[in-house]
Amino acid sequence: MKKRAYVITFLFGVMASLLVVFIQLPYYVTMPGTAQALEPLVHVENGDKDKGSLMLTTVRMGRANIAAYVLSHIRPYYELYPLQAIKQEGETDEDYTIRQLQLMEQSKEAAIIVAYQHAHKQVTYHPRGVYVMSVVKGMPAARVLQVGDRIIRIDGKPVSTSEQLIEYVRQKKKGDRVTVTWKRDGKEQMATLELAPFPQAPKQVGLGLSPMTDYDVETDPPVQIDSEKIGGPSAGLMFSLEIYNQLVEEDITKGYKIAGTGTINMNGEVGPIGGISQKVVAAAEAGADVFFAPNEKGAKDSNYREAVKTAKKIGTTMKIVPVDTFDEALRYLYTLH
């Protein structure tokens, strides 16, 4: 009997452990990720080698199980989010991943353009279509389009930017029909859709999609960015600084470890990101000397202000530097000795 009791207890323990690990809850959990040197990921042909390093910071994220749920309530900088706070309505896990990778591609394109222009190197770019970033459940686009499709024509007219697509549809009214031509897996497809009101804004009509312009960027010297499976736009600023550093003769790191985060657009403007505290923790653990944080033009709840509070809490001597533009980050680096 005693042996049987031991076996039952053991099996119960195994089952409980499996439940804790494998049952997924309707939440995502995020935690500090890594701060990794960008030089191995960015390759400018005949680019300079430098003593210091510019580092990309990340946040680890995944679906929460019972163990992760418990940890999020007791571990510092473990954050819990409901599914709808991370994914858009009707978005699958695959759609979310594709959207994040496309945001990374857009971020890399902007980083290349900004870096080459500031380094006075040759760069040209032109739009070649509009990516579908997401579709709204119940709207016309959701019936035929998928995340990752590239729209190339509307009503037979070429469309090369998201602005062109939005402006064209904006002129239409409820019940109007438009013919959309797109590419998926290299194959061209076409469908005629009737515009409909948006669920959250009935006075506005449209197709129900979020577009993003796909650019073809050419540079001299050539550049390649191996972003691997990293998604999202938050590495834009640091990519642009690393590319610039490889293009110019001087070492803008001055031998320091420079970490940071922030989106960047083609005008060199730096935008806010999520998970700033977790990225500060990751950078501090990697021994960074400086951390660039989006300033959001001095907003009271800016990434920069949160980063300063986090740095103080964890007791790091890492310098938190506010930036609104690529120029500001560059000017700070040139003041280092």
TrEMBL record:
Q: What biological-process GO terms show up in the record? A: protein catabolic process; proteolysis
Q: Which GO terms describe its molecular function?
A: ATP binding; ATP-dependent peptidase activity; serine-type endopeptidase activity
User: In this protein, which residues make up the domain named Lon proteolytic?
Assistant: 226-336
Keywords recorded for this protein, A-Z: Hydrolase, Protease, Serine protease
Residue intervals of the PDZ domain? 100-184
Entry-linked NCBIfam families? SepM_fam_S16 (NF041438)
Q: What is this protein called?
A: endopeptidase La
- Species of origin reads Anoxybacteroides amylolyticum
Q: Which gene is annotated as encoding this protein in its UniProt record?
A: ylbL
